[in-house]
Every structure is written in C-alpha cells, then in structure tokens.
Amino acid sequence: MISYLLFIATLTAIYSILSLGLVVSWGQAGMVNLGLVGFFGLGAYTSALLTGTGVPIGLAWAVAAVAAAAIGVGFCVLTRTLRGDYLAIVTLGFGEGLRLVELNERWLTGGSDGISGIRAPLKQSLGDLFPWFYMGLAWLIVIVAIVFLARLLKSPFGRALRAVRDDEKVAAVAGKSVLRLKCQAFGLGAALFGLAGALYAHFTSYVSPDNFVLQLTIYIFLAVTAGGYSRLIGAVFGSIVVMTILESSRFAAELLPGLSAVQIASLREFAIAVALIVIMQVRPQGAFGLKNERARSSGAVDDSPATLSPSTAK
Q1: Which of 18, 133, 160, 277 has the greatest number of beta carbons closer than 10 A?
Q2: Is residue 244 part of a domain?
Q3: 295 pLDDT higher than 60
C-alpha cells in the first residue's frame, strides 16, 4: 500500500509540473496548447536516449527541458498568426504528429516497443528508499517551479503577459513585443512539459508512444480548470483532484459487479468527463478563482478578470 501511495504522489507531482506549464502558456499568456503531451513525450524520449549513451541524468533533464523549449519557441513563431480555436487545433495536431514520429521511427525510439531499462538517479544505492527519494525530488522541483514562476509573474514580464492575454492590440500600442512575449511564455511552458516528461521517464524506467496520448492532455486541462487556470497553487490543487478522481474511480469500479476490464477503464474516463462538466457548470473560475493583477494608484491588487490598460502592461 505504501508503494502504491508513493507512486501516486510522485505521479501527482509530475502532473503538477505539467499543469504549471499550462498555467504559464494558457492562463497567463492566453495560448491554448492542446499539444502539451507532445512536449511531454519529447522530454521523456530525449532524456531516455541521452542517458542511454552515458550522459548524466541531471544533464539529460536539462537538455530535455531546453530541447522542448526550443521547439516550443519555433512552433510559436510558425503559428504566430493563429488565435484561439485555430491555435488549439494546430497544437493538437502537432502533439499527435510527435507521437506518430515516436511510433514509427523504430531506429531511434524503438517504435511501439518503446525504450526500457531507463536509469534512475541513485536507484541502486538507495534500494527500498528510492521511491521516497524520487517523490521528494519531484515535489521539490514543483516547489522550486512555483517559487520561480510566482516571482516571474509578479514582475513587469508577468504583467505584460497578462496584457497580451487580455488584448494584444492594447499591449502592442503600449510598446510591448507581442510575438516575443508569446514565444517566451510558450517556450517556458514547453520547458516545464519537457522536464515533466524527463522525470516521468526515469521514474517508470520505460516509455512508449502509448504513454503520450490525448487523454493526458484532458487530465491536465481538467486539473488547471479545477484550480483556476491562472493560479499556480490551483495547478497543484487541480492535479491532486484529478489523481484522486482517477484512482478513486479505479476502486469504485472494483465494487461494481459484472464489469469487464474495458468497461472499468471506460468508467475512469467517464468520471473525468463528468467532473469536467460539473466544474464548468458549478465553478468555471476554479477553486481558487481567477487572479489578474492591475496597478492602482493606491497600490492595491484587483482580482477581477478585467482587461489591462496600456499603462498596466509597462
């Protein structure tokens, strides 16, 4: 039971990193990225392949994050004229395209067989203590990411991002480089997706294209929506909620007689769909609400989602 709980806690931390990346690109910059699972897989395969050639694990994680960020920035430049639903559709196709590359390029990724035997940090040295160590490491990365992003989003850069999210024309009139800000946000989010993928690969010691399917994107969007799509703490809260729903539905399915394995698996997806509908109907702003900082003469903070003025974006 302890091993199971440690596994779930570690996976929740990885989901939290993915959710934090989505908060940056969607919640703060207004760019819907339905292809986040593609960057997640990219980070996982990059780190797995590098460590397989003898590269230190820490360096492989850094390279995975940088590679995902670089591709994210390039993708943002190529899609700079797309907005809203059009951007969402293109990112969805991009993520699926990366998965198909991982599936078909057997010489590099192993195809449907995937890559197994991925090294994990200090696994042999720690023995039975390794699950505790990796869980602590994963949550430490979550905390560091939250502190870094909180400071970044409270800076003029963060206010400029929200100005771009609320009204690109206003931000441009205020003298802000809209494309540069969007690329920075998209790249930062992609870096977090790639880092989460690297953590996942070395945690499970195995990756295959089946690990990076659209359902994961839905889980992360539900997590961010549940917590409040512009809130960092909401991303962590939402990840815990999603993992609770997934695992509780697993146990609930065992109590229902006469269900096949396929029906039990479908029940979990049904539970996620119902949860998303309920959240959007009952509390669409999420558990922690939507926060949008605006400068006032009194120095107060406005939590309303009103559009930023040009002076705020400076």
Answers
A1: 18
A2: no
A3: no
How many CA atoms, within 13 angstroms, populate the side-chain half-sphere of residue 228? 16
Q: Nearest-CA neighbor of 99 among 40, 179, 169?
A: 40
For 54, what's the count of Cα atoms within 13 Å in the CB-facing half-sphere? 0
What sign results for the dihedral spanned by CA atoms 160, 147, 126, 56? positive
Based on the structure, what is the number of domains in the chain? Answer: 1
Cβ(216)–Cβ(234) under 8 Å? no
CA distances in angstroms from 166 to 3, 31, 65, 169, 313, listed in the order given: 45, 11, 28, 9, 10
Domain region containing 96: 2-213
Are the CB atoms for 172 and 179 separated by under 8 Å? no
CB 253 within 8 A of CB 268: yes
pLDDT value of residue 301: 38
The answer as to whether 111 is a domain residue is: yes
For the record, the structure tokens of 175 come out as 């003298």
Which DSSP letter does residue 287 get?
T
Q: Which amino acid is at 43?
A: G
Q: What is the mean pLDDT of residues 242-251?
A: 81
- State the DSSP string of 53-121: TT--HHHHHHHHHHHHHHHHHHHHHHTTT--HHHHHHHHHHHHHHHHHHHHH-HHHH-GGG-EE----T
In a domain, 78, yes or no: yes
Question: Would you say residue 229 lies in a domain?
Answer: no
Q: Report residue 206: phi and psi, to 5°.
A: -155, 135
Helix (H, G, I), strand (E, B) or coil at 36: helix
Residue 202: which pLDDT band, with cuts at 50, 70 and 90? very high
- Does residue 264 carry a pLDDT above 80? no
- Burial class for 78, CB neighbours closer than 10 Å (0-12, 13-18, 19+): exposed
Q: For the beta carbon of residue 281, count every other beta carbon within 10 angstroms.
A: 8
Label residue 205 left, alpha or beta by phi (over 0 means left) and psi (-120 to 50 means alpha): left
